[in-house]
TrEMBL record:
Pfam families: 2OG-FeII_Oxy, DIOX_N. One of its GO terms (molecular function) is metal ion binding. This is Leucoanthocyanidin dioxygenase-like protein. Keywords: Dioxygenase, Iron, Metal-binding, Oxidoreductase. Residues 200-312 form the Fe2OG dioxygenase domain. InterPro entries: DIOX_N, IPNS-like_FE2OG_OXY, IPNS-like_sf, Oxoglu/Fe-dep_dioxygenase_dom. Belongs to the iron/ascorbate-dependent oxidoreductase family. One of its GO terms (biological process) is coumarin biosynthetic process. Transmembrane segments: none annotated. Its cofactor is L-ascorbate.
Amino acid sequence: MAQISNTSNSLYNFIVRDGNGIKGLVDSGLLEVPKIYIQPINERINKLETKPCDMPPIDLSKLNGKEHEKVVNEIVRAAETLGFFQVVNHCVPLELLESVKDSAHAFFNMPPEKKVVYRQNVSTSLKMRYQTIFAPEIENVLEWKDYINMVYSSDEDALQYWPNECKDVALEYLKLSSKIVKVILEILIGKLGVELDDSKIESLIGLKMVNMNYYPACPNPELTVGVGRHSDAGTITVLLQDGIGGLYVKAEDENDVGKVEWLEIPPIPGALVINVGDALEILSNGKYKSSEHRVMTTSNQSRVSVPLFTLPKFTEKIGPLPELVKKDGLAGYREVLWKDYMDNFYGVAHEGKKTLNFAKINSS
Ligand SMILES: O=C(O)CCC(=O)C(=O)O
Ligand SMILES: [Fe+2]
């Protein structure tokens, strides 16, 4: 924290201590991007070097019909290649998705004094946090994003600790999206030729949290990032994005091996984005890809997104499934206590998929 708070104390106090967030700074009439938000050139997103991801969304309702196997294969292929795909005809009502986005706006539109009570160091609850900086003590440049993190432990706790503005819809979203996660996880594990009982599947997604990300309009989006390059730590993420766009995923150019390209996951009304996290990459011994992704901001509209992160319970030991190691003849990752993995994940600056090196064997 020293770095940021020392270099621009008053900015730090305004944004973080007083709970205004980067949203508050933009609302105050900001014309220029403050220095601590300016990314080094190699981290900026050049839209000209990106293209839209043209993978059609996967229709989950077809899992119940004669195209079951085709849909299963689409899911597996997407998880093996990009690690990202979109689903439609899932079980989450579209009105609920609209209410979730509305409630995110309702929370962030509150005055700072209402939000600051949820700030780390102010609130004693670990179940709800309002933050603007991923990790001020380790990141040198800040992300153009405010967010809340709502950790699920029980319905009672959620209704007690999560903000009134969003708790009911966030809880409903968490429950229904968790069903999608379970269906997809069972398919992916099944296709590895491994059988896991229900309690094991549950423990792989035993920790659930809903974040609400708010990216205010930025005077110069080319200089900043909404979220820098990272992979998600957990098993599977379900992401609701609004219609603004700006989520980019790293892919290998199909026509030019080794060449990297950034694909934008286009907003599709009613669709949910699904992505593989580090835990699933480890479990599958690298077969399923936890993708590097990042977010660009826009100059005239604020964007919201609402990920449901599902992660293994902290007490789980996560390593490649033994049947796969036997089949592959080699483990690409070591077994880690999930708590240790998460401590490392939150303790280092994020630089793409480097957080996975904690578990990788022979990582360079
Ligand atoms: O806002 C988005 O589209 C993605 C956010 C994200 O990657 C995250 O919260 O981990
Ligand atoms: Fe992410």
